[in-house]
Amino acid sequence: MAYKRLLTIQDISCVGQCSMTVALPILSACGHETCILPTALLSTHTGGFGKPAAAHFDNVLTDMWHHWQQNGITFDAVLVGYLGSAAAVQTAMEIMEALLAPGGICIVDPAMADHGRLYSGFDESYVFRMRELCRRADVILPNMTEAAMLSGLSYRDNLDENYVNDLADALNHRCVVLTGVGYEVEQTGVLLREEGRQRYYSHRRIGRSYHGTGDIFAACFTGALMQGKALFESVKIAADFTQRCIENTQRNPAHWYGIKFETALPELIRMLQ
Ligand code: PXL
């Protein structure tokens, strides 16, 4: 198994099974040294608990990575997730520029929107900055809403292949992993567009949509890719793992706020062997 040093930059939502509390265990289970840069501390995610208590770390982010730089610390991959402020987007951009090891890659999940709407607290200027960040990434992982916002096309929830192709074209990025691409009620999928070549992984859509699935997918995709799996193989592993996590959470209304991803970690480790 490869052992890479990764950095993930995202918030810590203390309760809610998303962002850092999901990425760190998944990347560790994938066998990688995982360093973290938390951009903010929130009591919960912003998806259903009301307004969280929050502290943003904008003032210390630059000192943090400068300290790493003084120590000659670099990363084989940087995974960027939910950031939460314009300053944190700027920091992520600077880190991607300054701290990548030779041959290292930057993966950006532009976590800012879903179901046709921005997450609370974000506005057009955040989308603009995220567009800049995505331009600098090697791989971007938008859902359909984020892809529409990044590309400037209007959002649609009933998809057809023409619209999805137009969206992938309009993103105009060398490597896009588009999630939530479903054409039927009980089906969804992931579209990989890489240097003009396109592949689609279709899988069963289970139940309603769950909070944090994008974060699970992004961490698993990154962990698999850094284990030397090919891009499309990493897409499949991440989609299968996410689906298994959802299966393990279904039929449990008390668990409306997140995904029981921990229950599927042993399976992920097997998938990577
Ligand atoms: O899952 C993405 C995410 C991460 N962090 C916070 C969020 C969300 C989505 O709503 O609110 C704080």
Give structural attributes.
single chain, 3-stranded antiparallel sheet, 273 residues, binds 3-hydroxy-5-(hydroxymethyl)-2-methylisonicotinaldehyde, 11 strands, 6-stranded mixed sheet, alpha/beta
Structural overview:
Helices cover 38% and strands 25% of the residues. It has helices at 20-29, 58-70, 86-98, 124-135, 144-151, 161-171, 213-226, 231-247, 265-271; strands at 5-15, 33-44, 54-56, 75-80, 100-108, 113-114, 117-118, 139-140, 175-178, 187-194, 197-204. The chain is α/β, with parallel strands linked by helices and 273 residues long. Helix 3 (86-98) links the parallel strand 4 (75-80) and strand 5 (100-108). Helix 2 (58-70) runs parallel beside helix 3, helix 3 packs parallel to helix 4 (124-135) and helix 5 packs across helix 6. The strands form three sheets. The protein has a six-stranded mixed sheet, with helices on both faces. It has a three-stranded antiparallel sheet with strand order 9-10-11, covered by helices on one side. The chain has a two-stranded antiparallel sheet with strand order 6-7.
Radius of gyration: 17 Å
Residue stretches low in confidence (pLDDT < 50, at least 5 long) are none
Content-based structural category: alpha/beta
Largest sheet composition: 6 strands, mixed
**Helix proportion of residues, in percent?**
25-40%
Query: Which ligands does the model contain, each kind named once?
Result: 3-hydroxy-5-(hydroxymethyl)-2-methylisonicotinaldehyde
| Shape type | globular
What's the arrangement of strands in the largest beta sheet?
A: 3-2-1-4-5-8
Determine the strand fraction and express it as a percent band: 15-25%
What's the order of the H and E elements? Answer: EHEEHEHEEEHEHHEEEHHH
Whole-number mean pLDDT: 96
For the terminal residues, how far apart are their CA atoms?
A: 8 Å
How many extended strands?
11
* Count of helical regions: 9
What oligomeric state is this? single chain
